[in-house]
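Structure (tokenized):
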């Protein structure tokens, strides 16, 4: 009897210990938006320029402003790659693209020796229950023995945007379709767009569908007219049509709260308010909260990524503002590097009419303002849940996986290393005000690779141990406490759309080059060390004199010493300090790994430039 009582007490104490350990770990909410410019946030504008509005004009962001007042803003944070997939991968892995081998929108597998578990998998190992809602953009696959790959879930519960689209719970969607409304198609349509109206009826947007099924003829035109769509068009290919490129302006077919981002926000609220073991959204059933574990929740919002479709009330309100739309200077184009010039041409917008440019900018900032409301809803629900459970909490808000040009440099696009594309501040708010003080602004450089170590350290990981030696970033709590190395520069590389290009940025200068002769992995890896300066397609901007990065000084005699110092550092770091390239092949089946390590240790955060110009 005594033995039974002893073991019962032991089990109880072990359970109590596990429960108390779980309670000591903060619940974590990681919020990430998509293609969001930092100047859409008033708090950031005040920190950077002393003014509440953007240089372009009126913006509003009361909820993110409130977050900034509640916690610590890392105002000089930069992304590692100005494209959705490589940027999101760098965050989830805590690694630079040149260390993971993931440079663009390729699928990749997790079987290789240099690969480590993702942030949510590491959090799960630390005892967290993990949840993802919305857009993910991490294209990781699991390699099987037969050489093929299958999907690899990195979150325990994944309420992904594809399933919500299929259930028609959002205002807009795009899918690969082999049938429409139960009717089989002659051949699958790769990108079938559709708009879900308030009454639940669907309007399809597809030239292929209209040709296959004449009964849908005029459907795209109906959506184009009804929702006042502005689609990206190239004036050399003719005028805009209902089938032109991405939607840059328009009005949502659903009211505020019922758009796809509204569904994401509501999904988190429902999850936090649900006490049952399971709950349902649309046609799918999901696992509910396990109270014995701390939560790690990641919400990937789509706003303000195209299609830019703010709800009608937000759109109407922003239409009363006139914006200062940037105009392209011919002198800039004459000096612009070839790679960047090609990228600008792909997203060229300077030929838009003044009315089109105004609508494009008005709707973008209106969409950001609507998204700010949803940020507020998710934050409030998360804090309410955590405090109702007497649990500590941490919020990491990331303003865009990268930025977005609104006719800066003559383009509506991303993918380039200009400040408007890569400058994405982060706010960290915590119930522990000592680690992340209220209203504090950190002006030291921080990077997206800092997100994983910051969250892992908060979750109890010893990121100084060998198990986490692969992480490329810093714990932002240590940055606040001035216990982390101070960066003289930030660095990044992306191969998507623009082509292989790396950049390095100091407080005063930005320098970038073509980093590889092409996208072939593992071949000519040290090309940048021997290529001529001209072939590197360089650009250099003096941010002190040219904050808008318009005047390329890469070939200016006056700036040659600066350019050469930055080139040497950039090449040594991204090409020579533990660079990894992988031939991922189709669907991420590749296993051929190539490495370059001729300058190991070059990435030391130190770069002292001779600025005596």
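Design, position by position:
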């Amino acid at each position: 009897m005594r033995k039974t009582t002893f073991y019962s007490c032991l089990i109880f104490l072990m359970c109590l210990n596990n429960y108390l350990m779980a309670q000591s770990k903060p619940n974590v909410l990681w919020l990430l938006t998509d293609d969001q410019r930092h100047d859409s946030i008033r708090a950031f504008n005040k920190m950077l320029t002393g003014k509440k509005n953007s240089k372009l004009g009126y913006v509003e962001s009361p909820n993110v402003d409130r977050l900034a007042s509640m916690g610590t803003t890392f105002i000089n944070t930069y992304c590692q790659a100005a494209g959705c997939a490589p940027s999101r991968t760098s965050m989830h892995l805590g690694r630079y693209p040149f260390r993971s081998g993931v440079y663009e929108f390729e699928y990749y597998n997790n079987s290789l020796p240099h690969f480590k578990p993702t942030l949510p998998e590491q959090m799960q190992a630390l005892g967290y229950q993990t949840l993802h809602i919305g857009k993910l953009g991490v294209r990781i696959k699991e390699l099987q023995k037969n050489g093929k790959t299958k999907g690899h879930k990195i979150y325990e519960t994944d309420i992904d945007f594809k399933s919500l689209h299929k259930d028609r719970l959002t205002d807009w969607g795009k899918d690969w379709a082999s049938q429409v409304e139960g009717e089989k198609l002659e051949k699958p349509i790769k990108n079938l767009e559709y708009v879900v109206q308030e009454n639940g009826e669907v309007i399809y947007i597809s030239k292929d569908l209209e040709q296959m099924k004449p009964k849908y003829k005029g459907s795209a035109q109906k959506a184009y007219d009804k929702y006042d769509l502005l689609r990206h068009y190239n004036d050399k290919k003719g005028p805009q049509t209902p089938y032109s490129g991405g939607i840059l302006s328009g009005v949502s077919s659903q009211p505020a709260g019922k758009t796809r981002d509204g569904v994401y926000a509501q999904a988190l609220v429902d999850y936090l308010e649900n006490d049952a073991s399971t709950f349902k959204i649309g046609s799918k059933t999901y696992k509910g909260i396990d109270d014995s574990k701390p939560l790690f929740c990641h919400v990937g919002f789509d706003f303000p990524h195209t299609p830019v479709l703010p709800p009608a009330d937000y759109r109407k309100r922003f239409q009363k503002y006139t914006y200062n739309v940037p105009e392209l200077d011919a002198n800039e184009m004459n000096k612009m590097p070839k790679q960047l010039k090609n990228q600008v041409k792909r997203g060229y917008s300077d030929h838009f009419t003044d009315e089109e440019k105004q609508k494009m900018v008005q709707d973008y900032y209106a969409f950001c303002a609507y998204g700010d409301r949803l940020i507020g809803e998710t934050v409030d629900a998360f804090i309410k849940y955590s405090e109702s459970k007497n649990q500590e909490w941490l919020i990491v808000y990331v303003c865009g996986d990268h930025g977005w040009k609104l006719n800066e440099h003559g383009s509506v696009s991303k993918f380039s290393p200009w400040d408007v594309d890569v400058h994405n501040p982060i706010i960290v708010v915590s119930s522990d005000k000592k680690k992340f003080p209220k209203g504090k602004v950190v002006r030291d450089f921080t990077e997206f690779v800092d997100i994983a170590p910051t969250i892992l350290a908060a979750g109890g990981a010893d990121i100084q141990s060998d198990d986490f030696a692969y992480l490329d970033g810093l714990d932002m709590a240590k940055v606040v406490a001035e216990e982390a190395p101070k960066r003289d520069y930030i660095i990044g590389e992306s191969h998507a759309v623009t082509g292989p290009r790396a950049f390095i940025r100091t407080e005063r200068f930005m320098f970038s080059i073509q980093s590889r002769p092409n996208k072939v992995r593992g071949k000519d890896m040290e090309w940048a060390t021997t290529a001529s300066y001209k072939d590197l397609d360089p650009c250099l901007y003096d941010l002190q004199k040219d904050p808008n990065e318009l005047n390329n000084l890469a070939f200016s005699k006056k700036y040659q010493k600066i350019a050469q110092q930055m080139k040497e550092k950039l090449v040594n770091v991204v090409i020579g300090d533990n660079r990894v390239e992988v031939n991922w092949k189709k669907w991420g089946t590749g296993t051929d790994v190539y490495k370059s390590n001729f300058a190991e240790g070059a990435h030391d955060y130190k770069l002292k430039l001779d600025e005596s110009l």
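Reviewer-requested clarification: The chain is about 30% helix and 20% strand. The first strand starts at residue 27 and ends at 32.
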